[in-house]
Amino acid sequence: MPELTRRNFMKFTAASVAAAAVADKQHVSADTGDADKAFPLMTAGATSAYGLCHFCSVGCGIEVKIKDNKVVSTEGFPDHPINEGTLCPKGRSMKELANSDLRLTHPLVRKPGSDEWEPISWENAMDKIANKVKEVREETFSKTKNIDGDEVTVNRMDGIFSLGSAEIDNEEAYLYTKFNRALGIHNYTHQAEI
User: Dihedrals φ, ψ of 159, to 5°?
Assistant: First the structure.
């Protein structure tokens, strides 16, 4: 093999680009000889739905291609003012959130002393969460003395930290803040600033 000099590197690079261009022009189907139908697209016949990517706080527009009730592709939405058709690798791979066999579709609980996760109903899960929040709230409410020297409970607790989503808009962030303040949670923040 010849020594790799700057001149040889430039020759190899130019030859590679030329070979790729020739191969692209020769992109013809072996069956029909039709260059336009060389490889059928996986999105052929798919319907489109539009939405926002949820991985970060940028809010890129995505075009979701659905075929046979399965997400086959997530692409950047060209007419969206934020990303103008571009999409990062996380957004492009977002179809796996819907298609993955590892995706959880129901809540799970691990009972004390057990090493197995068991499915429970959504209603049961919501009840467990609400009861735990109430329990921690009652245990960790702050107490202070009023002007008369009597100990009183104030609407402030240290037992819960709340982390908001980067996916929510201004109105949802306002409601998120009101909800935390109503519970007495003062340790809360938003994912977008992390």
Answer: -85, -10
Ranges in the chain, pLDDT < 70:
1-2, 24-40, 192-194
Report the C-alpha dihedral over residues 96, 102, 106, 107, rounded to 10 degrees: -120
For the chain, what percent of residues have pLDDT higher than 90? 14
As beta bridge partners, residue 67 has: 70
pTM check: above 0.85? no
CATH topology of domain 47-99: Phosphorylase Kinase; domain 1 (3.30.200)
Could you state, in order of their start, the residue ranges of all structural domains in the chain? Answer: 47-99
Q: Let me know: does 153 contact 143? Beta carbons within 8 Å.
A: yes
Q: Which residues pair with 166 in a beta bridge?
A: none
